[in-house]
Amino acid sequence: MTSITTTRRHTVVDSPYGPLTLVATDGVLSGLYMAGQRHRPAQETFGERDATPFGGTIRRLEAYFARELTHFDLPLHLEGTPFQRRVWDRLRHIPYGETRTYGELAGELGNRGASRAVGLANGKNPIGIIVPCHRVIGSSGSLVGYGGGLERKQRLLAFERGAGDGTLF
C-alpha cells in the first residue's frame, strides 16, 4: 500500500497591507495569509521556508498592487468542504472594484437563505486577496466580517476603486 505524501513550502512577502505568508502544497498555491488573520493555520503547518514555488504568484501580486492586474489566473489548491469550494469559486467571479452581498452570493449558489453559511465559508477562505473575499459586504452595504480585519478590508476595497493607495488617512 502506497501512502500519498504532500510537500508544503512557504515564503513571506511584503505588501501595502503588511506581510503576506504564501503557502504551496505540492508546488501549487494553497494559502495566502495576512498577519493576525483569523482562521490562520499554525505556522508549523506551512512547511519549510522556500520561495521557489512562488515566482508567478509574487509577480502577479506585485502587478496587482501596482494596479496593473485586476484578475488572478493562477492554479490554486483549495482545501475545504465542497460547499466552501463552491463559495470560493463564486468569489473569484466578483469583478475587481465591485462588491456582492452574502445574500447575493447565496442566491448565485441557488439558496438565497444560505447567506450565513456563505459568510462562514467566506471567513475561512485560505487564499485571501487572490480569492477576493474582501469584496463581500453586508446586505446594508456595511463592511462586516473579514479575517484580515475590517481596516484591511476597507483599504483593499478603496484601493480597487481607485481611491489613492487604499490608506485610510
UniProtKB/TrEMBL annotation:
<feature type="domain" description="Methylated-DNA-[protein]-cysteine S-methyltransferase DNA binding">
    <location>
        <begin position="82"/>
        <end position="161"/>
    </location>
</feature>
<dbReference type="GO" id="GO:0003908">
    <property type="term" value="F:methylated-DNA-[protein]-cysteine S-methyltransferase activity"/>
</dbReference>
<dbReference type="InterPro" id="IPR001497">
    <property type="entry name" value="MethylDNA_cys_MeTrfase_AS"/>
</dbReference>
<keyword id="KW-0234">DNA repair</keyword>
<feature type="domain" description="Methylguanine DNA methyltransferase ribonuclease-like">
    <location>
        <begin position="9"/>
        <end position="77"/>
    </location>
</feature>
<dbReference type="InterPro" id="IPR008332">
    <property type="entry name" value="MethylG_MeTrfase_N"/>
</dbReference>
<comment type="similarity">
    <text>Belongs to the MGMT family.</text>
</comment>
<dbReference type="InterPro" id="IPR023546">
    <property type="entry name" value="MGMT"/>
</dbReference>
<keyword id="KW-0963">Cytoplasm</keyword>
<keyword id="KW-0808">Transferase</keyword>
<comment type="function">
    <text>Involved in the cellular defense against the biological effects of O6-methylguanine (O6-MeG) and O4-methylthymine (O4-MeT) in DNA. Repairs the methylated nucleobase in DNA by stoichiometrically transferring the methyl group to a cysteine residue in the enzyme. This is a suicide reaction: the enzyme is irreversibly inactivated.</text>
</comment>
<dbReference type="InterPro" id="IPR036388">
    <property type="entry name" value="WH-like_DNA-bd_sf"/>
</dbReference>
<protein>
    <recommendedName>
        <fullName>Methylated-DNA--protein-cysteine methyltransferase</fullName>
        <ecNumber>2.1.1.63</ecNumber>
    </recommendedName>
</protein>
<dbReference type="Pfam" id="PF01035">
    <property type="entry name" value="DNA_binding_1"/>
</dbReference>
<dbReference type="GO" id="GO:0032259">
    <property type="term" value="P:methylation"/>
</dbReference>
<keyword id="KW-0227">DNA damage</keyword>
<dbReference type="InterPro" id="IPR036217">
    <property type="entry name" value="MethylDNA_cys_MeTrfase_DNAb"/>
</dbReference>
<keyword id="KW-0489">Methyltransferase</keyword>
<dbReference type="Pfam" id="PF02870">
    <property type="entry name" value="Methyltransf_1N"/>
</dbReference>
<dbReference type="InterPro" id="IPR036631">
    <property type="entry name" value="MGMT_N_sf"/>
</dbReference>
<dbReference type="InterPro" id="IPR014048">
    <property type="entry name" value="MethylDNA_cys_MeTrfase_DNA-bd"/>
</dbReference>
<feature type="active site" description="Nucleophile; methyl group acceptor">
    <location>
        <position position="133"/>
    </location>
</feature>
